[in-house]
Write a structure and sequence with these properties.
Length: 175
């Protein structure tokens, strides 16, 4: 009889233990549980695990892009070479619209204030990528033709050259 009593006590023990005040103390802490309280803000410059969209769909969306390529002599040289291959046919070797076709198609002077001061680097990159009204695209195969001849980086090198080398062309050429 005694044995049965012991056995019953042993079997009943776990449920009794669960009822003890400390049996849930791992769960009931003064911490904030999931879905409780206010989430702490993400640290600066953190990104969602799914990433952030980096693709822009048109020139308008590119105008605030930040140029990731530093203005170095190497970058200016690459930009200059690409400019002479891809842009000079219409905008002229000096960018001053002195090419034979410039006046016929309305290619503009790229050294004047309109381009140098009022167009952002992102906008210039967007213009090279998506083209303009008459000007063809160099980063997408668009509606009005165009090619993706220039890589993303190459387009930034051209932007660096447009903003920092073109107006100093004589200095660049001497280097
Ligand atoms: C086939 C001729 C042609 C070529 C090649 C060309 N452009 Fe243009 N570009 C134009 C014409 C025409 C305009 C003015 C009309 C327009 O906006 O389409 C223009 C306008 C621009 C503008 C002004 C955009 C604006 O917002 O007003 C920039 C900047 C420019 N070109 C840069 C370049 C660069 C950089 C290259 C080389 C990667 C290049 N272009 C190659 C014809 C050309």
């Amino acid at each position: 009889m005694k044995r049965i009593a012991v056995l019953l006590t042993v079997l009943a023990l776990p449920s009794a233990v669960l009822a003890w005040p400390w049996s849930q103390d791992m769960m009931n802490q003064p911490s904030i549980k999931p879905q409780e309280g206010v989430m702490t803000p993400f640290p600066a410059r953190s990104v969602p695990v799914m990433g952030i969209p980096t693709k822009v769909a048109n020139r308008e969306e590119s105008k605030d892009l930040v140029n990731p390529i530093a203005v170095t002599t190497a970058s200016l040289k690459k930009g200059r070479t690409l400019f002479r291959i891809y842009c000079s046919a219409c905008h002229g070797l000096t960018g001053k619209a002195e090419s034979p076709v410039a006046s016929k198609i309305g290619a503009i002077d790229l050294t004047d204030d309109y381009v140098q001061a009022s167009l952002s680097e992102g906008w210039l990159w967007g213009t090279i990528t998506f083209g303009s009204y008459v000007m063809p695209a160099y980063g997408v195969v668009g509606e009005q033709g165009g090619s993706n001849d220039l890589s993303v980086e190459e387009r930034w090198h051209v932007v660096n050259y447009l903003k920092n080398g073109l107006v100093n062309e004589t200095r660049m050429a001497a280097q």
